[in-house]
């Protein structure tokens, strides 16, 4: 919510700095590798020229897979004999690469993620095309830092060895939670990642109202909290992409896939202390600990901290997003200028996904207590 207002201001500055025609042309030059950045900028679409808005809207369509002959050469960098076979037809395609089913010589099924040829050069060119955003964003509190962080995170995704290392770290952090299963990396090069294949429907497809829902929504809610926050308290990391589309519903819990957006969470003790205050029913100082310097909006935003307090929160009747929308309507300028710790952006993104998933589960759930249990288990494992 808060980052959106910053991005919207950046969008207005982009339009005014480049002019309507130049802004549309710049956005029209985005290639497949900039899908994620384009989708982020789509948050500010209402501040951009009409033609630019239309071109951004097209970025939300399904990514088209590349022909097998075009990408199979990347497999030559893998160790000889690692893969017994790879299916030429992908089962998933995204903005920067696609995923194929494969099999190791020992019979294990694996997912083989392959970056598109030329995606690195295309993404860097796209980021350079949008560099005009960074200069006017210096006039926004935290704007330039936020855009620089987005750039750095996206460039990290150009090396699948980084994703593999983060996957190993997350798997170790989640070891005390047996219901959570990470798609453990097996081998990675810069352009290819071979990882364990986890099969099943995504959480996005089984949550109400899309599907019948899980048999035990309370257990699934616990799994969601652990999936997002256990790595935070165990190793100071958060998977910003732990949204329902990247969580596989298995017979024993949840499987975590697509770990390309793992980020460091700074100052975890301060975050933990803020959650402790909320759990005891206190709201003073909680926002600051979460990275939001609310100022004159302190009391307004404290009203949105209810799910972190003691006792159950009925996510089936949750109206926090509606309350925030009303606050935005009443005090748009105050929210627009609200300072926040930009280094908390990946955590904020993950929490938004968690809140969305819990709302769709629609059950009363003691989120504050679940967070406490995760922190206690993380502390005992680290002791």
Radius of gyration, rounded? 21 Å
Overall mean pLDDT = 79
- List the domain count as a whole number: 2
Largest sheet, in brief, is: 6 strands, antiparallel
- Spans with pLDDT under 50 lasting ≥5 residues? 1-35, 39-48, 55-62, 136-142
Number of strands: 13
Overall spatial form: globular
Multimeric state: single chain
- What is the number of helical segments per DSSP (H or I, 4+ residues)? 18
Terminal CA distance reads 36 Å
Instruction: Assign the structural class, choosing from mainly alpha, mainly beta, alpha/beta, alpha+beta, or little secondary structure.
Output: alpha+beta
- Fraction in beta strands: 5-15%
- Fraction of residues in helices? 40-55%
Describe the structure.
The protein is α+β, with helices and mostly antiparallel strands. It folds into 2 domains: 2-59 and 119-156, no CATH class; 171-185 and 199-383, no CATH class. Helices cover 48% and strands 13% of the residues. The protein contains 18 helices and 13 strands. It has helices spanning 2-18, 20-28, 35-41, 50-57, 68-71, 119-129, 134-137, 143-156, 160-173, 203-206, 217-235, 268-279, 286-290, 298-302, 320-330, 332-336, 345-361, 367-382, and strands at residues 83-86, 92-93, 97-104, 109-115, 180-182, 185-188, 192-196, 237-239, 247-250, 253-256, 262-264, 313-314, 364-365. Strands 1, 2, 3, 4, 6 and 7 form a 6-stranded antiparallel sheet that branches. A hairpin with a 3-residue loop joins β6 (185-188) and β7. α1 packs across α2 and α12 packs across α18 (367-382). It is globular. It starts with a helix and ends with a helix. Residues 1-35, 39-48, 55-62 and 136-142 have low confidence and may be disordered.
């Amino acid at each position: 919510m808060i980052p959106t207002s910053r991005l919207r201001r950046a969008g207005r500055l982009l339009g005014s700095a480049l002019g309507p025609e130049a802004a549309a042309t710049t956005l029209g030059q985005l290639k497949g590798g900039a899908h994620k950045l384009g989708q982020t900028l789509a948050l500010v679409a209402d501040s951009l020229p009409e033609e630019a808005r239309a071109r951004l809207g097209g970025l939300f369509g399904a990514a088209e897979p590349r022909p097998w002959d075009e990408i199979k050469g990347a497999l030559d960098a893998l160790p000889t004999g690692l893969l017994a076979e790879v299916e030429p037809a992908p089962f998933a395609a995204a903005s920067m690469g696609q995923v194929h089913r494969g099999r190791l010589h020992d019979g294990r099924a694996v997912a083989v993620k392959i970056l598109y040829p030329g995606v690195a050069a295309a993404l860097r060119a796209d980021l350079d095309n949008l560099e005009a955003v960074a200069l006017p964003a210096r006039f926004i509190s935290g704007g330039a830092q936020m855009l620089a962080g987005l750039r750095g995170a996206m460039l990290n995704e150009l090396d699948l060895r980084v994703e593999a290392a983060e996957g190993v770290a997350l798997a170790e952090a989640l070891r005390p939670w047996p219901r959570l299963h990470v798609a453990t990396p097996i081998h990675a090069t810069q352009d290819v990642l071979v990882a364990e294949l986890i099969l099943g429907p995504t959480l996005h497809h089984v949550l109400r109202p899309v599907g019948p829902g899980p048999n035990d929504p309370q257990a699934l809610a616990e799994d969601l909290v652990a999936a997002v926050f256990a790595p935070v308290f165990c190793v100071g990391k958060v998977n910003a992409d732990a949204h329902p589309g990247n969580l596989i519903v298995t017979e024993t819990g949840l499987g975590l896939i697509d770990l390309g957006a793992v980020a460091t969470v700074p100052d975890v003790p301060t975050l933990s202390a803020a959650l402790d205050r909320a759990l005891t029913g206190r709201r003073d100082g909680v926002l600051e600990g979460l990275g939001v310097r609310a100022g004159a909006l302190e009391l307004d935003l404290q009203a949105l901290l209810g799910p972190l307090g003691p006792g159950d929160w009925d996510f089936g009747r949750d109206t926090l997003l509606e309350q925030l929308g009303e606050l935005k309507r009443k005090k748009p300028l105050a929210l627009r200028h609200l300072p926040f710790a930009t280094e908390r952006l990946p955590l904020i993104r993950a929490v938004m996904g968690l809140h969305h998933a819990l709302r769709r589960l629609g059950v009363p759930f003691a989120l504050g207590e679940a967070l406490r249990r995760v922190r206690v288990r993380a502390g005992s494992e680290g002791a």
